[in-house]
Design brief:
4 helices
């Protein structure tokens, strides 16, 4: 199976499983999935978050997702339990479609590693 086909198949599986689990079957978009990963990584699942914290959660997720690509490195957890990352390498300029593919690939890899999907 071609790499692009496998990514699409796995991405669709992630979206389907997460949508059923967290959105009553409504289809989650990329940003919603990144947010969920941020909540997962923070580990404070049963909390309500204000708008600025939601952006922070998405930042945590993006750092975690792009860490295996060498762009970020885990640094420390602060007194409130929030993980912090440091930039190892600046992200290259990517067109919107390229950003989307990179994030989908990183998300699929994250959920494969977490054994949420095969």
């Amino acid at each position: 199976m071609a790499r692009d086909e496998q990514l699409k198949e796995r991405w669709d599986l992630v979206v389907d499983k997460l949508s059923k689990q967290f959105a009553d079957g409504d289809t989650l978009d990329l940003d919603a999935i990144i947010y969920l990963i941020g909540v997962q990584e923070l580990g404070q699942i049963h909390r309500e978050y204000k708008k600025d914290h939601k952006l922070d959660l998405m930042h945590i997720a993006i750092c975690k997702l792009l860490e295996p690509y060498g762009f970020y490195e885990f640094d420390f957890v602060d007194d409130d339990g929030w993980p912090h990352y440091k930039v190892k390498e600046q992200l290259p300029f990517l067109k919107a479609g390229e950003q989307s593919v990179l994030m989908k690939e990183a998300i699929v890899n994250y959920f494969v590693e977490m054994e949420y999907i095969d």
